Amino acid sequence: MSKLTDVPKRILIGRALRSDRLGETLLPKRIALPVFASDALSSVAYAPGEVLLVLSVAGVSAYHFSPWIALAVVVVMFTVVASYRQNVHAYPSGGGDYEVATTNLGPKAGLTVASALLVDYVLTVAVSISSGIENLGSAIPFVVEHKVLCAVAVILLLTLMNLRGVKESGSLFAIPTYVFVVGVFIMIAWGAFRTLVLGDTMRAPTADFHIKAEQEGLAGFALVFLLLRAFSSGCAALTGVEAVSNGVPAFRKPKSKNAATTLSMMGVLAITMLVGIIALALVTDVRMAENPAQDLLKGGVPVGPGYVQDPVITQVAEAVFGNGSFLFIVLAAATALVLFLAANTAYNGFPVLGSILAQDRYLPRQLHTRGDRLAFSNGIVLLAGAAALLVVIYGADSTRLIQLYIVGVFVSFTLSQTGMVRHWNRHLRTEKDADKRRHMIRSRAINAFGAFLTGLVLVVVLVTKFTHGAWVALLGMCIFFATMTAIRKHYDRVAEEIAADETPSDETIRPSRVHSIVLVSKLHRPTLRALAYAKLIRSDRLEALSISVDPAETKALKDDWERRGIDIPLKILDSPYREVTRPVIDYVKSLRRESPRDVVSVYIPEYVVGHWYEHLLHNQSALRLKGRLLFTPGVMVTSVPYQLESSEAAKKRARKRAEWNAPGSVRRGPVERRPKEPANKG
Hints:
The protein has 682 residues and is of the alpha/beta class. It contains 27 helices and eight strands. It has a five-stranded parallel β-sheet, sandwiched between helices. It has a three-stranded antiparallel β-sheet with strand order 1-2-3. α6 crosses α21. It is elongated.
């Protein structure tokens, strides 16, 4: 079985890496930017469209509010980036928002942040993959017809890439991310040149369409609510900013400085791209509608259900470069691909956060250990499973999934920045150096403004998106919070239960006697080995125990026992219902009742086999019996192995795996090779 799984694992994931090669997997800034910022950068492909979709409710006349909404999003993004630069310097361990909130606001606040981030990471994968599938589906009909299957397949592919290691996946993802960024900047520059210098009139493919307003002439509170809803949708451009602070350990030294530089680069690129695309959308008269089949009119007639509404970035690219041109095709392909790769931000943030939470005993400990390629493999697999489940439930529909978005990230933004204010207050009480105090006061002002602004945005998001799906994200956060709280209580309860006492206890006081029992079914070599081993231990009392199911076999066992003259008493227990496990358990319990201070040691002979199917044919009774005995207080269970000839095959496979550094060998430790003994030539 091991051979069947190890070889495909080696082919798909690669050779295992030694723990001392962890430094080789760390990222330079040029790779860290696409790895950690691909989510924030790719969001400009759909954030402008979300703004226009919401504004279209009031008709084309509401589009003139889009520059002001874009300006508000830019202010929030600038504030968040500046705030998180303080975070990565103050908390470079990779705990990010979770560590900041836990340290400064308490465990419950930290757990709230962790719950929000875990939900947001899962949604990042689901939304990015679904959006990418929809973009790709406009050109390949098969993808649209089987979009759930295709989305799950892409998630599986990304999972395998990340299991190979963060550096390898980062190098692979860097090229399309940079192609996308360069393509967007070329589009903005060429569009501005054509408009301002050449005076060309650029028209989007929907420029001649009209929008049937659902609510015309909005004013007062209704208009304000619509603008706030459009603003909250535009804030999708901020998702992924927190991933850099959670991924500081993956940067090369100096980690904090490189992470802060990457944050700044990401902010500048995302802000420029977002503003440029919205400006070109207005110049080229892009039209978007939440229900295009009914609300988009061409010549006064609805376009109908057969119409496919292209994203804003695609329409702008067609207007600037021309439909079918080389640059248009390159940018369209890069946009679809970078949306897939945007999920990689979550693949780097979720496992690191999961490892930290596992170290703090809020998640299973398996999430804390690194896998064969020095990535947090268990966290990667867990993220992929959760995202795939969400994609299946929502049918890979990005419009439905995006309504769940943003809530979690702004919960973490707000609590993190509030925690940073308390962090600086605490340090200012003890710091005497004037220069350091000035730096801390400036940092506190940045974080305080960040806390206020992100808190305000959080309220807006909750009010405007709650009935549109935000409640699902809140429910997910509550489920994560409750689950992690329960796990922590379990670990704490177990730790308290097994803690060594200062005073002598039942576990430290030497038992009065040891009553050893060797289980016997037949008198063969495994049984003789178990009897010999039990005699070597020198127990106070030693006996063999057999369960009589077949009288003829029991008589044969007694005769053979007497014929061999074995000096260990053989006790036979009748089992009229042909059970084996219950009579043994009842007998062991009766011994414990007779002498509660005695320890009963049970020796079970077992076969060691070399093939997976042989496990189905042997040791089943022994496994059931051990499972029951483990729950019996005062009973020690010892397996006495006997190697069958087929076990040699498993031994050879193990030797081969040791030679090529098998997956998992990093955790097992180096294989100790003994020198061959010289042949006896005498």
